[in-house]
Amino acid sequence: MFDKLTVRDADVRGKRVLVRVDFNVPLSEGSVTDDTRIRAALPTLRYLVDHDARVIIVSHLGRPKGEPDPKYSLRPVRRVVARLLGRNVHFVDQVVGPDATEAVERMVDGELIMLENVRFHPGEKENDPQFAKDLASLADVYVNDAFGAAHRAHASTVGVTEHLPAYAGILLAREVETLTEMLAHPERPFVAILGGSKVSDKFGVIDRFLDVVDTLLVGGGMCFTFLVAQRIGVGKSLVEDEWVEPAKEMLAKAADKGVDLMLPVDFVVADAMAEDAETKMVGREEIPPHMMGLDIGPTTVELYKGAISSAKTIFWNGPMGVFELTPFETGTREVAVAVARNNRAVSVIGGGDSVAALKKFGVEGRVTFVSTGGGASMKLLEGSELPGLEALSDRE
To answer: Which residues are catalytic?
Structure first.
């Protein structure tokens, strides 16, 4: 059960509600190219509008250096929010200051405004107390619906909660409930699929999963550190030398726990990470010294598909190879399709590149749940506290 108060517990009618969302969306030539995160926040925004709140939207976008930067403006995002809600959303060129204060004072019940990128202010990432107080002064109630930023202790995720009644949004609550329930009560077999480039990024999650899953499929660049731990040569493939010993420990833990930790048995290798690279298929002990593994091979694909097809619970985070390049997309595509085809399983996608892969291969609508926060979902699953979640009011 979700143990924080949610927006549905709050009295918002006629109140100024500061809503922290995660509208960190991709832009190209001033237009939003993927509105997934915006759509995910719509239930909370609609709930507030329908209950006559005065909605003040705050978000970050990109990584500006604590000062205004036109290429990171939220103006293009405002247009998409207004279109999807079917309502006008007034835009304020400030985060805090006289323009923001005046805009809020003019609001009427059911109206929405969007503040400029919160990371344009240096106090955001520093969780500056004065900035947090100034931001909170705009509102009567705070709602955090930014799961993708919940692992950051910033002014708009933590600092403001010291000054306002603080509630979880509908998306944030659903994210936490889905991920924690998956770990606590999975239908079995429970198959986790982890990929991506670095084992160091996923080590905590691997450790936690070895306590709960039946099968762990490993792909992407991170698998090579495990292979080196088994004294297998990997050519020029990515290896984190300082993580070889911990990888040995994880292999031993998997054996001790009876978890089938599956590593690739073959690869697509190349002499360069490029569309026109020279490629070949090799067994995992046959990677040439001058080449690198950039995708799992066909035998591995079939083995992984078999494990996925028998699962009743599936978690997937991280691609199987450099799927952005055509010669190395097959492994990730086949895994994505296999997950989508298993309609008997609860399938949870842990944000990040896995979501991009689902979209690229046209299967994003065929999984049970897609997390909006890659980093936050990994922190939650490894058992770490999320500052933006912990700061919210507890349910008694």
So the answer is: 37, 198, 352, 375
